[in-house]
Design a protein that fits this description.
The chain is α/β, with parallel strands linked by helices and about 400 residues long. The chain has 10 helices and 17 strands.
C-alpha cells in the first residue's frame, strides 16, 4: 500500500471498490477532451505519457485534451515508480508493483476508449459549494514546522461541480473536487479504499442510479482532514462532501457552453544546488529512506547526470467563457489556488495531482519556512530537493503562458 513508509505488511482486503473513471466531452466542432479520474496515490508521467501517446495514435485526441487526475488516497496500491524511495521493496514485491502499474496503463487506455464510445447529446452546467473539514496542516513549533493543525493557515473550502445531464434531463455524471489530503483513515488501516473521496463518490451514485460520480483533487498539498484517524471518519467526511454536492445539484446551475479550448506544456523546475558529497554523507543516516534517496542521487552522479531539474506539466481545459479547469502536476499547496483564482477572471478550478505527481510544489513562503512539504518529502520522491527559490515564479509564469493560449489573461 502507498502513502505511509511505516506500513509493514500488504493490504488486508478492501472497504469499497476503487475506480478509474473517464468523462469524454465533445463540442459542435468535434473537439474532444477526456478527464480521467483515479482512486490512486498518484499517476507518474511514465504511465500518463504512455497512455496519452496511445490515445493520440488510436483515437486521434491531442495530448492537451487528456487530463489525468488522482485522488491521492493513502489507502491504495503502490503505483511504480511514484514515491520510489519510500519503501525498501524486496525483489518479488517490486515485480508485483511493476506488473500492477503496467496493467494499470492498459486499463486507463481502455477506460478512455470506453468514454469516447459512449458519447451522447448532453447539457453541461456548473456550480460551487463549500466544505469545511480541511485544515492547514503546517503547524509552527519553536523547533520547526511540523504536520499538525494550523487554524489560521491558508485553506480553500470551495467545492466546484460540473453536472452532465442527458437530453431527457437525467443525471449522467457529476465531477466535483476538494482541496484536502485523502488521509482521513490514516496508516492504521490496512484495507484498500478511496478514503473520503471514495465514500463521497458512492453517495451521489446511490441517489442517482446509473450516474457516474468523479472526484478530482484540488490544491490539497498542505491540507489535512480534521479530525482524522479511522475509516469511520473517512466515511463521515465523504458523506459531508457528498451532501454538499447533492445540495448544489439541486440548485440552479450556470450553463457550460462551447467552444472547447485546451493547452498543455511541460516546464522545468530547478532544484537548489547540491553536491555529490552531500549524498555520500547521507549514506550513514539512520533513516533508510534517506539512504535509498542518497544511493539514487549517487547513481545519477556516476552517470554524469546529476538531477538539477524536473519536468512539470501544466494544462488548461476551457469551456467557452464559462468554466476552466487548470491542471497542475504534483502536490500543490493551497496558496497557489487562492492566488490564481484572485488574479484570473472567470469561473476557475485549480486541479492538482494531475498528469504527473513528482513531488510537493511549495510556494515561496512554504519553501522559506521549510518542513515536510518543502524539504523532507523529497526523500520519499527520490529527488535531491528542496527546490530553488524561484519555484513559485516558474510555476506562475508557466501557467500564465498556458492560460494565455486558451484566451485567459491576468486581471489588469
Amino acid at each position: 500500500m502507498a502513502g505511509y513508509p511505516y506500513r509493514d505488511r500488504p493490504s488486508e482486503g478492501a472497504v469499497h471498490p476503487r475506480w478509474a473513471k473517464a468523462l469524454a466531452i465533445e463540442d459542435r466542432n468535434k473537439t474532444r477532451v477526456v478527464i480521467v479520474a483515479t482512486d490512486l496515490i498518484g499517476l507518474p508521467r511514465e504511465i500518463t505519457d504512455l497512455v496519452s501517446t496511445r490515445a493520440q495514435q488510436e483515437y486521434r485526441i491531442e495530448r492537451s485534451r487528456i487530463m489525468f487526475n488522482s485522488t491521492h488516497t493513502h489507502s491504495g496500491p503502490v503505483v511504480w515508480p511514484n514515491l520510489r524511495t519510500m519503501f525498501n521493496l524486496r525483489r518479488k514485491d517490486e515485480r508485483v508493483v511493476v506488473k500492477y502499474s503496467r496493467r494499470l496503463g492498459e486499463d486507463l487506455f481502455c477506460v478512455i476508449g470506453a468514454a469516447l464510445a459512449d458519447l451522447a447529446p448532453a447539457q453541461l452546467s456548473h456550480g460551487f459549494g463549500k466544505a469545511h473539514f480541511a485544515v492547514n496542516r503546517r503547524e509552527r513549533t519553536p523547533e520547526s514546522m511540523r504536520i499538525g493543525i494550523n487554524p489560521i493557515g491558508s485553506v480553500d473550502p470551495q467545492v466546484p461541480i460540473l453536472r452532465i445531464l442527458s437530453e431527457a434531463g437525467r443525471l449522467r455524471a457529476v465531477v466535483f473536487g476538494y482541496a484536502c489530503h485523502n488521509t482521513a483513515s490514516r496508516g492504521r488501516s490496512y484495507q484498500l479504499s478511496g478514503d473520503y473521496a471514495g465514500f463521497a463518490q458512492i453517495e451521489p451514485e446511490k441517489r442517482h442510479p446509473g450516474a457516474t460520480a468523479m472526484f478530482i483533487m484540488l490544491c490539497g498539498g498542505d491540507q489535512n482532514p480534521n479530525p482524522h484517524g479511522s475509516i469511520e471518519l473517512a466515511q463521515s467526511h465523504g458523506k459531508t462532501l457528498a451532501a454538499e454536492v447533492n445540495r448544489v445539484l439541486g440548485t440552479v446551475l450556470s450553463p457550460v457552453r462551447p467552444p472547447i479550448r485546451t493547452a498543455h506544456d511541460n516546464i522545468q523546475l530547478n532544484f537548489a544546488p547540491h553536491t555529490r558529497q552531500m549524498f555520500e554523507n547521507e549514506l550513514d543516516d539512520a533513516d533508510p529512506a534517506r539512504v535509498r534517496r542518497a544511493n539514487a542521487m549517487l547513481r545519477a552522479y556516476d552517470k554524469f547526470r546529476p538531477v538539477h531539474q524536473t519536468p512539470y506539466p501544466i494544462e488548461a481545459l476551457r469551456f467557452g467563457s464559462d468554466f476552466t479547469i487548470l491542471a497542475l502536476g504534483g502536490e500543490v499547496v493551497a496558496a497557489y489556488s487562492l492566488r490564481v483564482k484572485k488574479e484570473y477572471p472567470g469561473k476557475l478550478v485549480v486541479a492538482t495531482y494531475s498528469n504527473d505527481v513528482m513531488s510537493y510544489i511549495p510556494s515561496r513562503r512554504v519553501l522559506e519556512e521549510g518542513g515536510y512539504e518543502a524539504v523532507d518529502s523529497m526523500i520519499f520522491y527520490g529527488l535531491p530537493g528542496p527546490y530553488a527559490d524561484d519555484v513559485e515564479d516558474r510555476v506562475l509564469d508557466g501557467l500564465d503562458a498556458v492560460m494565455r493560449r486558451v484566451g485567459i489573461c491576468r486581471k489588469a
